[in-house]
């Protein structure tokens, strides 16, 4: 006869999905009233900083980086590392500038146009560079974006700018894919949106399993792209050298 206490001990306890929303980002509206998209807790503070305040932020990050280097056993006074904390601080602010980018004022602007077009629009091979939020190392690759307009189109360069904004945050590829798709859907209200990302993750290539040449592919299909025929048309166009 089984011991009830033993059976209870074998049951799974709480998991992250059981205890909190799967994604606090994509469960919220893509664009907030002031034009920011899925802002972090410090987004508006960074966006409103003047030059002096930003300089102090750089100094605080630099101090933290200096501590890390010392804990690694390095001599932070040697020539090669003397200015590294400052350089790294400024680089990190650039790599995460997407937090303080206003999607409406800085990205979309006045580039939504009324147009009687209802066929697929695709921009392929947009280069992306981002930081994995689990290890703070890069992942990079290409994003392909497609949508079917519903009387409204977006300037083509804005699709690349939209991807760039979300890349310049601490990310996971799955969330990045969904954020691009959901934001485009919210702004244009098209009949459907499709986003595919192919990326190489340095946390997988240079550490851990160390499998060079591996690539991760994620997709997000919204609206009519969930239908098999439309999805297949989009994917077949991505595989062609010319459209």
TrEMBL record:
<dbReference type="GO" id="GO:0006729">
    <property type="term" value="P:tetrahydrobiopterin biosynthetic process"/>
</dbReference>
<dbReference type="GO" id="GO:0046654">
    <property type="term" value="P:tetrahydrofolate biosynthetic process"/>
</dbReference>
<dbReference type="GO" id="GO:0005634">
    <property type="term" value="C:nucleus"/>
</dbReference>
<dbReference type="InterPro" id="IPR018234">
    <property type="entry name" value="GTP_CycHdrlase_I_CS"/>
</dbReference>
<keyword id="KW-0547">Nucleotide-binding</keyword>
<dbReference type="Pfam" id="PF01227">
    <property type="entry name" value="GTP_cyclohydroI"/>
</dbReference>
<protein>
    <recommendedName>
        <fullName>GTP cyclohydrolase 1</fullName>
        <ecNumber>3.5.4.16</ecNumber>
    </recommendedName>
</protein>
<comment type="similarity">
    <text>Belongs to the GTP cyclohydrolase I family.</text>
</comment>
<feature type="compositionally biased region" description="Basic and acidic residues">
    <location>
        <begin position="1"/>
        <end position="11"/>
    </location>
</feature>
<dbReference type="GO" id="GO:0046656">
    <property type="term" value="P:folic acid biosynthetic process"/>
</dbReference>
<comment type="pathway">
    <text>Cofactor biosynthesis; 7,8-dihydroneopterin triphosphate biosynthesis; 7,8-dihydroneopterin triphosphate from GTP: step 1/1.</text>
</comment>
<dbReference type="InterPro" id="IPR043134">
    <property type="entry name" value="GTP-CH-I_N"/>
</dbReference>
<keyword id="KW-0378">Hydrolase</keyword>
<keyword id="KW-0021">Allosteric enzyme</keyword>
<dbReference type="GO" id="GO:0005737">
    <property type="term" value="C:cytoplasm"/>
</dbReference>
<dbReference type="GO" id="GO:0003934">
    <property type="term" value="F:GTP cyclohydrolase I activity"/>
</dbReference>
<keyword id="KW-0289">Folate biosynthesis</keyword>
<feature type="domain" description="GTP cyclohydrolase I">
    <location>
        <begin position="62"/>
        <end position="238"/>
    </location>
</feature>
<dbReference type="InterPro" id="IPR043133">
    <property type="entry name" value="GTP-CH-I_C/QueF"/>
</dbReference>
<comment type="function">
    <text>GTP cyclohydrolase 1 is the first enzyme in the biosynthetic pathway leading to folic acid.</text>
</comment>
<dbReference type="GO" id="GO:0008270">
    <property type="term" value="F:zinc ion binding"/>
</dbReference>
<dbReference type="GO" id="GO:0005525">
    <property type="term" value="F:GTP binding"/>
</dbReference>
<keyword id="KW-0342">GTP-binding</keyword>
<dbReference type="InterPro" id="IPR001474">
    <property type="entry name" value="GTP_CycHdrlase_I"/>
</dbReference>
<feature type="region of interest" description="Disordered">
    <location>
        <begin position="1"/>
        <end position="36"/>
    </location>
</feature>
<dbReference type="InterPro" id="IPR020602">
    <property type="entry name" value="GTP_CycHdrlase_I_dom"/>
</dbReference>
């Amino acid at each position: 006869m089984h011991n009830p206490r033993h059976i209870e001990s074998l049951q799974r306890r709480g998991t992250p999905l059981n205890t909190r929303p799967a994604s606090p980002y994509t469960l919220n509206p893509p664009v907030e009233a002031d034009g920011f998209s899925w802002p972090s807790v410090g987004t508006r503070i960074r966006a409103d900083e003047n030059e002096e305040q930003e300089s102090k932020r750089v100094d605080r990050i630099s101090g933290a980086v200096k501590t890390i280097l010392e804990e690694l056993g390095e001599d932070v006074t040697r020539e090669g590392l003397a200015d590294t904390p400052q350089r790294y601080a400024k680089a990190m602010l650039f790599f995460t500038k997407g937090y303080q980018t206003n999607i409406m004022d800085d990205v979309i602007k006045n580039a939504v146009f009324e147009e009687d077009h209802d066929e697929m629009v695709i921009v392929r091979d947009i280069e992306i560079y981002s930081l994995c939020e689990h290890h703070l190392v890069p992942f990079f690759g290409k994003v392909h974006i497609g949508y079917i307009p519903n009387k409204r189109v977006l300037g083509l360069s804005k699709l690349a700018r939209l991807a760039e904004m979300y890349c310049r945050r601490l990310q996971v590829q799955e969330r990045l894919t969904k954020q691009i798709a959901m934001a485009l859907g919210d702004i244009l209200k098209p009949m459907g949106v499709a986003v595919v990302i192919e990326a190489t993750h340095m946390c997988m290539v240079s550490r851990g399993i160390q499998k060079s040449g591996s690539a991760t592919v994620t997709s997000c299909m919204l609206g009519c792209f969930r239908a098999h025929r439309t999805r297949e048309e989009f994917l077949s166009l991505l595989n062609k050298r010319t459209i």
